Write a sequence for this structure.
């Protein structure tokens, strides 16, 4: 179960700007920006999952900045 929870911190890290590289790790590896996960959907369960994901990313960023 905890392995699944590591997907969001990994996504956050790989899509965050790094000053030394002047890019995100994703852009360094793939040469393009990642696809946006934002947007609207007609499926309620997907909308809820995206809202949960956004909240998880906010919490992850908060706790990583505290370190």
């Amino acid at each position: 179960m905890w392995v699944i929870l590591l997907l969001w911190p990994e996504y956050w890290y790989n899509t965050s700007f790094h000053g030394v590289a002047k890019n995100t790790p994703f852009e360094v590896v793939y040469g393009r920006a990642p696809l946006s996960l934002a947007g609207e959907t007609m499926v309620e369960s997907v909308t809820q999952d995206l809202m949960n994901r956004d909240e998880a990313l906010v919490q992850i960023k908060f706790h990583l900045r505290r370190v």
Observations:
- The chain has a mean pLDDT of 80.
- The chain is about 60% helix and 0% strand.
